Recover the amino acids of this structure.
């Protein structure tokens, strides 16, 4: 393995050097995928007729016919490989006379790493009013408004509103509730230290006081 110019971020279409888990055991030039990528990103790239996993090692060399350079397909939903790990793989490959692609394959053998994200359907409030507004339908729409745009599965929505699945399906059919696909595993939102607290009732205040006293007492 040889060093490559180390830029941190590559926009869509910029030249990147990628090490794949399949031969040939050398860096290959690709175009950054839609949405861009960064050094260390785990990506899926076309290699012959196959799609294979690779890691962005830096900027591409640009010493190949530009018309033959293919675009990377997508960035995997995984944390980028740290510089320390890439350096370790480089040293281990040289020391053990192991092809670089084999070393990378050993480091990326997590089950399902290259699988596309699992999707699910969620419900959101739409702008269309239903033709007939029953009490059950009001409860469903109120739940969606109370959740302030957060998506709920049809089962979750029906359970919180205390209605049957058919009520939700009826609202979807009339366009009052919108169903959309979203990744099943979503990243946690960033913590907001300025987010306001909630108002506790009397029982909750007593419980909170008890917990605080326990913490203060060690």
């Amino acid at each position: 393995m040889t060093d490559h110019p180390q830029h941190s971020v590559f926009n869509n279409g910029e030249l990147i050097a990628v090490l794949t888990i399949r031969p040939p055991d050398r860096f290959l030039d690709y175009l950054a995928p839609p949405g861009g990528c960064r050094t260390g990103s785990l990506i899926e790239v076309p290699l012959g007729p196959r799609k294979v996993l690779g890691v962005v090692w830096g900027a591409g060399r640009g010493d190949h016919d530009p018309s033959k350079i293919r675009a990377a397909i997508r960035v995997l939903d995984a944390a980028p490989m740290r510089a320390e790990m890439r350096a370790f793989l480089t040293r281990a490959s040289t020391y053990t006379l192991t092809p670089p692609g084999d070393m990378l394959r050993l480091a990326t053998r997590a089950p399902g790493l290259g699988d596309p994200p699992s999707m699910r359907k969620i419900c959101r409030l739409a702008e269309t009013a239903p033709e007939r507004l029953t009490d059950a339908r009001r409860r469903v729409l109120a739940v969606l408004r109370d959740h302030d745009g957060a998506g709920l599965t049809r089962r979750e929505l029906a359970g919180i509103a205390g209605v049957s699945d058919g009520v939700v399906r009826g609202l979807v059919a009339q366009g009052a509730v919108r169903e959309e696909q979203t990744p099943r595993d979503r990243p946690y939102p960033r913590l907001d230290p300025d987010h306001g607290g909630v108002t506790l009732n009397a029982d909750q205040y007593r419980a909170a006081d008890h917990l605080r006293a326990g913490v203060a007492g060690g």
Observations:
- Residues 152 and 198 are 22 Å apart (CA to CA).
- Strands lie at 9-10, 15-20, 28-31, 37-38, 42-47, 50-59, 74-75, 119-125, 177-183.
- The mean pLDDT is 88.
- DSSP finds six helices and nine strands in the chain.
